[in-house]
Each structure stands twice: as structure tokens, then as C-alpha cells.
Amino acid sequence: MKFELEEISPTEKKINVEIPHEEVEKILSKKYKELRKRVKIKGFRPGKAPRFMLERFYGPQVNQETVQELLEINIPKILEESEIEPLVELEYDFEEIDFKGQKPLKFSAIAEVKPEITIEDYRGIPLKKEVIEVTDREVEEKLQELRENNAYLETVEEPPPVKEGDFVVIDFDTMIDGEKKDDLSAVDFTLEVGKAQIHADFDSQLLGMKVGETRSVKIQYSPETPNKELAGKEVEFKVTLEEVKQKVLPELDDEFARDLGDFSSLEEIKEKIREELLKMKESRSENMLREQLFNALLERTSFELPRRLVEREMALMVEQFKKQLEARGLTLPDIHSSEDALKEQYRPEAERRTKLALILGKIAELEGISGDGTGSGAATEKVIEKLIEWAEVTEVPEGTLEEELKKEAEEKEINAAETKAEAADASEDESSVSDETKENGEPKNTDETGE
Hints:
This protein is an alpha+beta fold. It has ten helices and twelve strands. Strands 6, 7, 8, 9, 10 and 11 form a six-stranded antiparallel beta sheet that branches.
């Protein structure tokens, strides 16, 4: 077996391989010997079919199996000898898979490898951390939310005409093209007027209704409506108002605490709320600290990203999004999108994640932190913890950092858009010059003086 290496880019190496026919024939003979024992060919006794007959019926299959076994034998040896550690599976390109006429097996393989990464000054990175506290006001706000969540509705006797904010109980028949749709109709349906549970125009046409009144409500749905039965249709709802209800909030006392379970007093609930708020704020603060760290690392390093590693990350992001859509009963065509469009949309974030993973993996390698060197798993967490430990952290008032990070992100987006526009303009200018050269045989002189 012979091979030679060719560097395509800082992240790709091409391996040209030639396996002599003798080695190929050794595997082929073994495969056909095994096959002869298993198959039956008309006109021949079991196990006695000649090889040329087996080749006629099973040649392509045996060739593929032989190639696979040759790869399994030789590729690990090549990678070890050339000290190549592929980041993803190899890409193979075979000249020809035809073993007649004493031909060797020739092919090439593209190995994607980690680029050379130089990281300077990753110790002592300046970071800002918010000083966290939970105020009594925040506790009271959460307590009121809890109270709202445990409110109940009671019927209003002799209610005034419906107004925004009322809770109403309605029956409605849904008519599309003059036909009643039972699956889109309802009885004793409760909604809060103004919340657009069905449609904003539906709520506005309920205003002023009285109990017992029936009213025709018409809505023109847009073609983009997810429900295909409603999309682009004018729909009529025959609505009858059955009841008007009002929200009743429970008293904030010890009985309210006991009704929630696991609490004996209102003070216990407040203490629990304070603990949960503190955990939430600490988590947010930690996330902002990490975000600053990641941004600093990304800004301090520049290297070519492995193409297929980025593509793999994009594919993972697309699959995650498709699962989220599936949980909502939707598909990509339902939202007028495609996998290719999503991949391009996710490309910047996929590149960011890939670059960050490689940087963290490199630091793990430099610091002797155990892991596989690609920035994954426990090693990544250890590296992040160490980098924060080594950082120069300055405390700032709560609420100031989030706005700073948001502003920085917006500025980066603007700069990225400007860079992209400049690149497009440069490409267009280059194209124009090229066209003029083709037309005239030489570049056009743009100096009007002719000098």
C-alpha cells in the first residue's frame, strides 16, 4: 500500500492512496470463498459454483464489501503513520472500482483537521459581573403573579355590555364558504376579550354584546395563516354570548399559602420566592459573564474554520428547529422555509460555536486539562471555570451589563453587514473590470488625462 499527502488548506489534507492488486485479490478471494458456501446457483452443486458465475451475480456487492474491508485495514495505518487526526469522517473519491485486469485500487480521501490556533493572553481577561440582590418589591411582584395564576372566575349577575378585559363564555358556529365546520366550532368557550385567543378582529366585534345576544362576526384570514383550512378565507362566526365572568383574586394570607401546598404561612412563600429569584439572577449573571468571556476569546483569535465541522453544526441546528416545529404540529413548508435557507440563516452562529469549541479545546490542550481536545464535555466546563477564575473581574451595578452586551451585539451586526456589503461591492467592481478586459482586450484607463 502506497500513499502520499497533499495539503489543500490549513484545515484539509488530501490522502492519495494506491493499494496493489495482490492485496485486493487476497480480500476478494476470501469474500468469494465465503460467498460460495452461502449461495445457490442453478446448475451447480452447493459450494461448487465457479468464481466467474459468482462475479456475474454478486460482483458489485463483493467489490463494495472488499473496498470497505480494505479501508478498515489501511486507513487507520495511514492516519497513524501520517499523524492525522480527522475531526469528522473522511470524504472518499474512488477513481474506479473494477478489479478485473490486475488493477490496483486507487482513491483519495479528504481529512478535515484542526487548524493551527494561536491564543495569547487568555489569562487575566477583563470581565464585568453584576452585583446581585433581590428586593422586597421584586418579591411582592412575584407574589402578585402567583396570586393572578391562582385566581378564579365567577359569573357576573346582570352584567353591562361586553368591554375589553371581560371574561366571556360563548357558543359559536364557524362557517367557511357557507358550510359549517364542526371541528372549528365550540360550545361554552371561555376567552378574555382583548387577548386575541382566536383573532384580534374577533375580540373587537364582541364589544358591546349583551348576554343572550347572537352576532355574526366576520374575519378575513391572511394566506400565511398556519391553519390551512382558514388560510386566505373569509370566515363567519355565529356567536352567542352565554355569560360574562369576572376574575376573583385570592386573599394573600396564610390560608392562601396552605392551599398551594408545602407551605404553612405567607412568609414561607415569600422566602421561597426570594430564593428562586436569587437563583435566577445568579444564573443570568453567570451567563453574561460567560458571554463576555466567549466574545473576548473570539476577538483574540483568527483562523480558518473546518468547513465540514461548521456544516455539521448547521445540520444539528436545523434538526433541533425541525423538532421544535414538529412539537407544534408544523413543518418547514408551513413556515415557508427550507433546510438550505435555514442552514444559511444559522451559518454565523454555527461558525461562532465551532470556533469557540476549537479555542476551548486548544486551551484545554495547552493547560493539560483532560478531554478529547475538541472543546466538548467536561473538559470544556473545566476550561471555562479556569478562565473565569483567572479573569480580572470588576463588579458593576445590577442592570447595567445587559444593556452593554446588547449594544455590543448590535454594533457587531452592523459591522458584519457593512463588511459583507463592501465585499459584495468589491466583487462587483472586479467583475466589471473583468468584463471590460474581455471586451477591449485590455483594462480600461480610468485617468481622463491619459497619463
